[in-house]
TrEMBL record:
The keyword DNA damage does not apply. The lineage of its organism: Bacteria, Bacillati, Bacillota, Bacilli, Lactobacillales. Associates with stalled 50S ribosomal subunits. Binds to RqcP. Keywords: Protein biosynthesis, RNA-binding, rRNA-binding, tRNA-binding. It comes from Fructobacillus cardui. This is Rqc2 homolog RqcH.
Length: 570
C-alpha cells in the first residue's frame, strides 16, 4: 500500500508508543530533505528518520546507518540549538491526513517553559518539515523555504504563521461512524465502490480503497467487515510483498492470496522497502559525477574496441595487399596514370583475374608501393592491436563492474568507489588552495564495512559492495578456509561465508545473495562459483577487485529479494 493517511495512522500510534516521554539527544541531517533525530527512551536509543523527500517522504524509526556531512546544514544546526536535550511529549496525526505533529517540551531563551511542534507533511513534492512555536503558531524554521510566487495558498517561510494545507472536506474514518459507507454499498455498483470510498473518507489511497472494497465484497456483514478492516491499523502486522519483481507493503497482511514477509515494526518494514529505492536515489544524488564518468569511460572504450576490431580485421587481410603489390610490380606495364582499376591474372590463385583498385595519380610501380606500405603497416599493427584489445576489454570489464557496484551501492559505498577511481587515475581529487597560517592535514579515508547477513543456521555471510571492500574482504580479512563466492563471468560482489564447511542450505542462501548483488539480479538460474578463499590469487598489477582461481564448484540459483531482507543484519 502507499504511505497514505491510513498507514500514517498506524505510524503515529507506533511512534507515540516508542518515543513519547523520551529525550532528544542528537540531531543530524545526512541528506538535504531528511533529518535523523535520536530519541532516548526506556534505556534505548531510537533513531527517528523524518523525511521530506519528494519521492520517499516518511517518518519512522530506522536502523539503517547514515553518513553525515562534514559540515552540518543550517537547518540541522537550528534544530540542535532548539531541540537537543528537550523532551518529546507525544506524536499525533492531524485527522487522517499525512501530517504528523511531534510535540516537544523545552525552554525559551529566558528559561520559561514552551512547547515546540516539529511538523512533518508527507505530500509528495509538497512535502516539508517545520519547527513551529505552539503558542503563536509561528514558523521558526523549515527544511524547504518556498517563495511566495510558488505557493500563494499559504506562506512557507520562517516567521510566517503556520497553517495546515487546505482541507478536503472528507470524513475521518477513525473519528466518525461509517454511515456514509452504507449508502455507498446500497446505491452504487461494486466497481464504483473504491472511487466512492476515496471521495468520501479521508486518507484513502486508491490501492487502500480497492482493498477495502475487495473485503466488503466477500464479507458477510459489510459494516462489521469495514470496522474490522480499519481496526487492523490500530494493531498493525507489518508485511512486505513482492509482486512481479516489485515490492509493496501494508500495515497488515491484507492479501490472503499473496505470501508476504512479516516484520516486527513498521520502522523495520519501511527500512526494508525504502532501503533499495531511497538509497538508489541518494546514490544518484551523491554519485552523479561518478555515474557520468563510468558511462563516458564505457562509451569511449566500446568505441575504441570497435575501431580496434576493424583494424584487426584489416590486418588479417594484410596478405591481400601484398598479393596486389606483387602483381602490380610484376606487370607494371598494364597500369598507366589516370586508371582507377586494372584486372591482372593472379598467379597465386590459378591465374584467376583479380581486380585491383588504383590511385589514378600514380603509375603501376607507385601503386604497388602503396599496397606494400599498407601491408607492412597492418602486419606491424597486428601485435599492437591485439595488446590494445586485451587492455580495452579489461577496461570495459572494469567499468561494467563499477557500474554494477553503483547500481547496488548504498551511500556509504560511494566514497569508497570515488577513492578507488582517484587512486586509479580516472578522477582528479579536488585540492584545496593553501592559505597562510596553520595547515590542516587531510584525514585518511576510512573504508566502509562490508554488508553483513546471517544464514538460517546462524552462519555469518559478508558481502563486498565495491572493489576496495572486495579486496580487503577476500584477500586480507577472510580465513583461508572460508568459502568465497562470485557470480560466474559477470560483474558482482565478492561473498565470504564464514565457515570452512557450510551446510548446503547456507551455500544456497549465500549463492542467492551473490546472484542478487550482481548484474544477474533480474535473471533466473544464475551460475555462482564457490571455493575456499585460500585458492584466490591476484595477478601483479591487476585492478582492485580482480582475482583469479581454479578448482571451483558451481551452483545454480535464482536471486530472491525477500531472502535478502530476511537475512540482512539489523
Amino acid at each position: 500500500m502507499p504511505l497514505d493517511g491510513l498507514f500514517v495512522h498506524s505510524l503515529a500510534k507506533e511512534l507515540n508508543e516508542q518515543l513519547a516521554g523520551g529525550r532528544i539527544t542528537k540531531i543530524h541531517q545526512p541528506y538535504p530533505n531528511e533529518i535523523v533525530m535520536v530519541v532516548r527512551n526506556n534505556s534505548q536509543n531510537y533513531p527517528v528518520l523524518l523525511s521530506a523527500n519528494p519521492a520517499y517522504a516518511r517518518a519512522q524509526v530506522t536502523r539503517i546507518p547514515y553518513q553525515n556531512p562534514a559540515t552540518p546544514p543550517n537547518f540541522a544546526m537550528f534544530l540542535r540549538r532548539n531541540l537537543e536535550g528537550a523532551r518529546l511529549s507525544s506524536v499525533s496525526q492531524v485527522e487522517n491526513d499525512r501530517i504528523l505533529h511531534f510535540s516537544i517540551s523545552t525552554h525559551d531563551e529566558l528559561g520559561d517553559d514552551q512547547t515546540l511542534i516539529l511538523t512533518l507533511e508527507m505530500m509528495g513534492r509538497h512535502s516539508n518539515l517545520f519547527l513551529v512555536r505552539e503558542k503563536d503558531q509561528r514558523i521558526l524554521e523549515l527544511i524547504k523555504h518556498v517563495p511566495a510566487d510558488q505557493n500563494r495558498v499559504r506562506s512557507l517561510i520562517p516567521g510566517a504563521v503556520y497553517t495546515l494545507p487546505p482541507a478536503q472536506n472528507m470524513t475521518n474514518p477513525f473519528g466518525h461512524d461509517l454511515t456514509a459507507l452504507a449508502k455507498i454499498l446500497l446505491d452504487m455498483d461494486k466497481a464504483d465502490w473504491p472511487k466512492a470510498i476515496q471521495q468520501t473518507y479521508q486518507g484513502f489511497a486508491s490501492l487502500s480503497a480497492k482493498n477495502l472494497a475487495k473485503h466488503l465484497e466477500t464479507g458477510a456483514d459489510a459494516m462489521q467487515t469495514a470496522k474490522d478492516w480499519l481496526a487492523h491499523f490500530d494493531s498493525p502486522q507489518p508485511t512486505l510483498y513482492q509482486i512481479d519483481k516489485k515490492f509493496t507493503f501494508a500495515a497488515f497482511n491484507w492479501d490472503s492470496e499473496q505470501a508476504g514477509q512479516p516484520y516486527d515494526t513498521l520502522g523495520d518494514l519501511l527500512d526494508a522497502y525504502f532501503q533499495g529505492q531511497a538509497e538508489a536515489d541518494r546514490v544518484n544524488q551523491q554519485a552523479g559525477t561518478l555515474v557520468r564518468l563510468v558511462k563516458n569511460e564505457l562509451k569511449k572504450n566500446q568505441t575504441k574496441e570497435k575501431k580496434l576490431q576493424q583494424t584487426l580485421t584489416d590486418s588479417q587481410n594484410a596478405e591481400t595487399y601484398k598479393v596486389k603489390g606483387d602483381l602490380l610490380i610484376t606487370y607494371p606495364h598494364l597500369v598507366h596514370k589516370g586508371m582507377h582499376s586494372v584486372e591482372i591474372e593472379n598467379y597465386y590463385d590459378n591465374n584467376q583475374l583479380l581486380t585491383i583498385d588504383l590511385d589514378p595519380r600514380f603509375d603501376g610501380l607507385q601503386n604497388a608501393n602503396r599496397y606494400f606500405r599498407k601491408y607492412r603497416k597492418l602486419r606491424s599493427a597486428k601485435d599492437y592491436v591485439l595488446e590494445q584489445l586485451k587492455t580495452t576489454d579489461m577496461e570495459i570489464d572494469y567499468f561494467n563492474q563499477i557500474a554494477n557496484q553503483l547500481a547496488v551501492a548504498s551511500p556509504k559505498d560511494v566514497a569508497d568507489i570515488k577513492v578507488e577511481l582517484i587512486e586509479q587515475g580516472y578522477l582528479r581529487e579536488k585540492v584545496k588552495i593553501k592559505t597562510k597560517g596553520k595547515q590542516t592535514k587531510k584525514p585518511k579515508h576510512v573504508l566502509s564495512a562490508p554488508d553483513q547477513f546471517t544464514a538460517s543456521d546462524g552462519t555469518l555471510i559478508e558481502i563486498g559492495k565495491n572493489n576496495l571492500q572486495n579486496d580487503k574482504l577476500s584477500l586480507k580479512k577472510a580465513n583461508r578456509q572460508n568459502i568465497w563466492m562470485h557470480v560466474q563471468k559477470l560483474p558482482g560482489s565478492h561473498v565470504i561465508v564464514h565457515s570452512d564447511n557450510p551446510s548446503q542450505e547456507t551455500i544456497e542462501e549465500a549463492a542467492k545473495l551473490a546472484a542478487y548483488f550482481s548484474k544477474a539480479r533480474d535473471s533466473a538460474n544464475v551460475p555462482v562459483d564457490y571455493l575456499p578463499a585460500g585458492k584466490l590469487r591476484k595477478p601483479n598489477g591487476a585492478k582492485p577487485g580482480y582475482v583469479i582461481f581454479e578448482g571451483q564448484s558451481t551452483t545454480y540459483v535464482t536471486p530472491d529479494p525477500l531472502l535478502v531482507q530476511k537475512l540482512k543484519h539489523s
